[in-house]
Amino acid sequence: DFKVRFGQGLTAWNGFSRSPLPTAKILMKGNSGIIPCSSSDENDFFRGIAVSLRTRNINILSFASINMIDASTGYDESSDNQYIKSFYTSGIHNTPTTMAKRNRLAENSLGLNINSMNNNFYYGFNIVYSRFSLPVIPGEDTRDIYDFTGDINASFSVDYTWLFKSSYLFGEFAVSHNLKTAFLQGISLNPEGRLRCNILYARTGRGYNSFHGDASGLSTFNKPATSLQANITAELFSSLDFTAGFLRRKELWHNNTSGSFPSSINYLTSVRFSPSEFITVRTDAKHHVSELWVNALQGVKTGNLLRKTNLRLTIETQASESLNLRTRIEKVVITNSSESGFLCYQSAGFIFKNIPLELRARVAIFKTDSYDTRIYAWEDDLLYNPVIRPLYDEGNKSYLMIIYRASGNITLRAKYASTSINAGKDISNMVNEYKFQAVISF
């Protein structure tokens, strides 16, 4: 099992990618490569053989894969032929319905990347071809017009990077087998050592579909869209820096929740202050504008602008060699309504000196007026299983995770989490989670 990462992600980029932040200091993806897959994701990887060849000036990466993936199937009433209605990507098979979706589709794939570096100019050629054992037939709704259809998914791209001193240009242009296109172009300028400016524009056109792509936060499968991102970072002093940026997205077709082409824009400013090597104080202000679609009379959807502001204070303290603390306070307000939300949590991590044991814990309280004022919080979890959950309503959440490194090859993780939601009149709904993981390397 392996992951493929070609170019800037328009043809193939397996694995987890965080949603881009407006203030991200690096917008360009790393070098092309093929790496072993250790993720719990059951769909976004290749299974087969991969070969890497290198000469003095040219690198060649190639692979062949045969993999079974999850999908929902249906039958054509006129011909009684089986087809794929949709792909199933959660990886959970705990009911008869989800069990029936397991390994329903065979995906046969081939890929090739040829890249080279000439002085300060890097360029690469990428091609990924996949053939499915059953044809994919999307729904008949208007929103499905540009969704992938058929049993062949192929794309070709050219990517480049040009370095000049400590600044660089980068980009990628891709075309699919049905001659639909996608591209991205970025620039990172460093006019002075303590100042950096970044700009990135990306577009996946209607009908362009790359099954395993992931380009700078834009989906390359069944979701045509454009994205414009820009930011500036200034290191004012060695202990103080400032970052400001924005991220604008616009989908190029309807989806199942909107009455038009959805769009959103995020503004974010961050100030980081480190008075010593043991403490860091960070403040963030985020303003989000998007369209909130509601069903009016006679089923006609109308759009209302949702304007939401988040104010966050985070303090990280290295209390001792073994103990680190993290405090976060956040307030969210919807400016065109009276709704608001609040979150406060205290996290702690402790590493024992004489035994291979580590403890991580958190206690959080939250209160929001609605789901629209939800607040997201990252939390410690099992390896290869990132968790960023929305907290809403009124309640509290706590967890304790134990990490025990039994030997150089065995690591055990156990987590207990409890979430309590106030249901009114001294009634609360409680959910307890128990997780265990053993990682054995050999």
Task: Map the helices and strands.
Blueprint: E1 2-5, E2 33-36, E3 48-54, E4 58-69, E5 71-75, E6 82-87, H1 96-100, E7 105-118, E8 121-136, E9 150-164, E10 167-176, E11 181-192, E12 195-204, E13 214-215, E14 218-219, E15 225-237, E16 240-251, E17 263-276, E18 279-295, E19 301-318, E20 323-334, E21 340-351, E22 357-368, E23 375-379, E24 387-391, E25 394-405, E26 410-424, E27 427-440
Antiparallel strand pairs: 1-2, 3-4, 4-7, 5-6, 7-8, 8-9, 9-10, 10-11, 11-12, 12-15, 13-14, 15-16, 16-17, 17-18, 18-19, 19-20, 20-21, 21-22, 22-25, 23-24, 25-26, 26-27
Could you explain the architecture of this structure?
This protein is an all-beta fold. The chain folds into two domains: 2-250, no CATH class; 319-442, no CATH class. The protein is built from one helix and 27 strands. It has a 19-stranded antiparallel β-sheet, with no helix packed on it. A two-stranded antiparallel sheet has the order 1-2. A hairpin with a 2-residue loop joins strand 7 and strand 8. The longest helix is centred in the first third of the chain and has 5 residues, at 96-100.
